[in-house]
TrEMBL record:
<keyword id="KW-0511">Multifunctional enzyme</keyword>
<dbReference type="GO" id="GO:0002097">
    <property type="term" value="P:tRNA wobble base modification"/>
</dbReference>
<dbReference type="InterPro" id="IPR006076">
    <property type="entry name" value="FAD-dep_OxRdtase"/>
</dbReference>
<dbReference type="InterPro" id="IPR023032">
    <property type="entry name" value="tRNA_MAMT_biosynth_bifunc_MnmC"/>
</dbReference>
<feature type="domain" description="FAD dependent oxidoreductase">
    <location>
        <begin position="254"/>
        <end position="600"/>
    </location>
</feature>
<keyword id="KW-0285">Flavoprotein</keyword>
<dbReference type="GO" id="GO:0050660">
    <property type="term" value="F:flavin adenine dinucleotide binding"/>
</dbReference>
<feature type="region of interest" description="FAD-dependent cmnm(5)s(2)U34 oxidoreductase">
    <location>
        <begin position="257"/>
        <end position="629"/>
    </location>
</feature>
<dbReference type="InterPro" id="IPR036188">
    <property type="entry name" value="FAD/NAD-bd_sf"/>
</dbReference>
<dbReference type="GO" id="GO:0016645">
    <property type="term" value="F:oxidoreductase activity, acting on the CH-NH group of donors"/>
</dbReference>
<keyword id="KW-0808">Transferase</keyword>
<feature type="domain" description="MnmC-like methyltransferase">
    <location>
        <begin position="118"/>
        <end position="240"/>
    </location>
</feature>
<dbReference type="GO" id="GO:0032259">
    <property type="term" value="P:methylation"/>
</dbReference>
<dbReference type="InterPro" id="IPR047785">
    <property type="entry name" value="tRNA_MNMC2"/>
</dbReference>
<feature type="region of interest" description="tRNA (mnm(5)s(2)U34)-methyltransferase">
    <location>
        <begin position="1"/>
        <end position="241"/>
    </location>
</feature>
<keyword id="KW-0949">S-adenosyl-L-methionine</keyword>
<comment type="function">
    <text>Catalyzes the last two steps in the biosynthesis of 5-methylaminomethyl-2-thiouridine (mnm(5)s(2)U) at the wobble position (U34) in tRNA. Catalyzes the FAD-dependent demodification of cmnm(5)s(2)U34 to nm(5)s(2)U34, followed by the transfer of a methyl group from S-adenosyl-L-methionine to nm(5)s(2)U34, to form mnm(5)s(2)U34.</text>
</comment>
């Protein structure tokens, strides 16, 4: 028997192909009917959950949630997606599909299996392009321009239902036959199915086994036998009785203060779900402050131990890579990224990291000095870790593209000096006399957030000055990929390449300085001795260099914050939220945290497991007045 993989790896499914149909070697059962798997899915899951008709009745800005206990080849998901596109509402609405898989298919097997269904090919191709790496935990895929959201949990089913926060409208109780895979049908699993259901939730399953029917009835479902598909005589369908109709979602009015990458990404996420947003900023346009650099590297530093912090970083990295692909060739440049083992300390850290973890090659690959030099196009003094899906962005341009949406109203030149609750609304007051009223407010205001939060006490934010240096293209050996160490170095954009940034605590100087340029050049040449063409003359005239200063916001524990504001007493405010504390990794963390916060603001299933939600809470940042004094 093979030994378990090191974290965060997960064992892929082992398939046997018989007459072109995949079977699980582990469980000895087929993934779908040999007669016609797609028609079986439509008969069992779509028809007996009444989905085409129910899809058509989803209200504007609403959503419909399907949960499934075995993703397999994704055939059930694709059938539901196809039906949503055909029968779903014309107004903005979202289909959420939540599924668990303990032994996920490798991308190659998924591609082969779904090739059996030519009519699903456009959807299958999009799924395959966005299919996540085989690592444990939660993966959120945003598909069909945001009309469809797939939450995939790679791991044990009981862990999944305990970790995820959602309530299903319909269940696809798939998985293998109970006799082949009894763990799928444990009483604990059925109890969790009930916990994640609401009045009116329906279910359907291939099986008609008596103990399954009795277990579902015991937790409150009305369950009946129904005609099965093909050679299967019977199946089960059920419903959780409803005493009153469900409430329709009303998004109300929402304002986001701060039009950096966090505010713009959140505004765009909500707008694509049909939620109108007012984006407020003191500058003349989006992407003018901390997110205003011409270039930025998209990377994280994964921890030696696979803990919550590392899991959040990994989920953010892989989600961001998928998210930015929309702007590939415009503002996103996936050149690959090299993290150098540039010192003895970092080389030892990377050695321990590789000993204790197992990441698939589509996440990262250890490389020698020779391989590092070949991949980056610049001679290096060490090897390191190669991230093939990473690269660099144009943050300023990306912010402006994100904010350009008919559901987003941009109010620039408004310096907010006060935020007050009054008569169930938030009143945003600008220094120039501007007043904006909204039902809910999100602060994406970095280290300035503490000034606006109307709660007694203090929230622990830190401001860190960072200066980048603009290097003339003709002065450098232009790399093919992003190179990171004590500094990052981007491939040139036009005639300039950005390197940096300094890390200046307790320095409020907003202007670039020659000393900071000198520090950037010193650290860069220590990392890459051959990066400057004219090394004898230091390659560049430091006094003539241009650059830019921005102030990163981080927290006392250097982890981001996303969620409702803690009220300083016992609970959280229901209509005031924070998204900040992203530090130097804002380009990586923003897409996932914007997705998570948009889930919460729109009342939809959240994309993060409970352990990571706790890590983001605002409560941990709060210091009471007596502690402050």
């Amino acid at each position: 028997m093979n030994s378990p993989l090191l974290p965060p790896g997960i064992e892929p499914a082992e398939l046997a192909w018989r007459d072109g149909v995949p079977e699980s070697v582990r469980f000895g059962d087929v993934y779908f009917s040999r007669d016609n798997g797609l028609e079986e899915t439509r008969h069992v899951f779509l028809r007996h959950n009444g989905l085409p008709d129910r899809f058509s009745r989803v209200p504007e800005c609403g959503h419909f949630v399907i949960a499934e206990n075995g993703f397999g080849t994704g055939l059930n998901f694709l059938a539901a997606w196809q039906a949503w596109l055909s029968h779903g509402p014309a107004a903005p609405a979202t289909l959420h599909f939540i599924s668990v898989e303990r032994f996920p298919l490798a991308r190659e097997d998924l591609t082969r299996a779904l090739a059996l269904w030519p009519e699903l090919r456009p959807l299958a191709d999009e799924l395959i392009r966005n299919y996540p790496p085989l690592v444990r935990g939660v993966h959120r895929l945003v598909l069909a321009g945001g009309q469809v959201r797939l939450t995939l949990y790679f791991g044990d089913i009981t862990d999944a239902w305990q970790a995820l926060d959602f309530h299903a409208d319909a269940w696809f109780l798939d998985g293998f036959a109970p006799a082949c895979n009894p763990g799928m049908w444990l009483n604990e699993t059925i109890t969790q199915i009930r916990a994640h259901s609401k009045p009116g939730t329906t279910l359907a399953t291939f099986t008609s086994v008596g103990r399954i029917r009795r277990a579902l009835i015991e937790v409150g479902f009305d369950v009946q036998k129904a005609p099965g598909f093909g050679r299967k005589r019977h199946m089960l369908r059920g419903v959780l009785p409803a005493s009153e109709p469900a409430r329709e979602y009303n998004p109300g009015s929402l304002a986001i203060i701060g039009a950096g990458i966090a505010g713009c990404a959140l505004a765009r996420n909500l707008a694509e779900r049909g939620v109108p947003v007012t984006l407020v900023d003191s500058a003349s346009g989006p992407g003018s402050e901390a997110s205003g650099n011409a270039q930025g590297a998209m990377y994280v530093k994964l921890g030696v131990e696979f803990n919550d912090q590392t899991e959040l970083a990994l989920q953010a990295l892989t989600f961001a890579q998928r998210f930015y692909n929309t702007w590939r060739g415009a503002y996103w440049h996936p050149t690959g990224l090299l993290q150098l083992a540039q010192s003895d300390q970092e080389a030892d850290r990377q050695r321990r990291f590789l000993q204790r973890n197992q990441y698939p090659e589509d996440v990262l690959i250890p490389v020698t000095r020779e391989q590092a030099s070949e991949l980056s196009g610049v001679a290096t003094n060490s090897g390191g870790l190669w991230f093939p899906g990473s690269g660099w962005l144009e943050p300023r341009n990306l912010c402006r593209a994100l904010a350009d949406h008919p559901m987003i109203s941009v109010s620039c030149g408004v310096t907010v000096d006060r935020l007050l609750p009054c008569n169930g609304k938030w009143h945003i007051s600008g220094a120039d006399g501007t007043t904006i009223v909204a039902d809910r407010v999100v602060l994406c205001t970095g280290h300035l957030s503490s000034r606006l939060i109307p709660v007694k006490g203090r929230f622990r934010f830190k401001s860190i000055r960072g200066q980048v240096t603009h290097l003339p293209r003709e002065a450098i050996q232009n790399p093919r990929a992003v190179i990171c160490g004590n500094r990052y170095m981007n491939p040139a954009l036009g005639q300039t390449a950005v390197t940096g940034a300094t890390f200046d605590l307790n320095d409020a100087n907003p202007l670039p300085t020659t000393e900071s340029h000198r520090e950037n050049i010193r650290e860069l040449t220590a990392m890459l001795p051959s990066i400057l063409k004219d090394t004898e003359a230091d390659g560049v005239d430091v006094a003539s260099l241009e650059g830019r200063v921005a102030f990163r916001c981080t927290t006392h524990d250097y982890q981001p914050v996303a969620g409702p504001v803690f009220d300083g007493e016992d609970s959280e405010l229901e209509d005031l939220f924070l998204l900040t504390g992203l530090g130097s990794k804002g380009l990586t963390y923003t897409p996932l945290l914007a997705e998570y916060l948009a889930d919460r603001l729109s009342g939809q299933p959240v994309c993060l497991p409970a352990n990571l939600v706790r890590r983001l809470e605002t409560r941990r940042l709060y210091l009471a007045e007596q502690a402050v004094s």
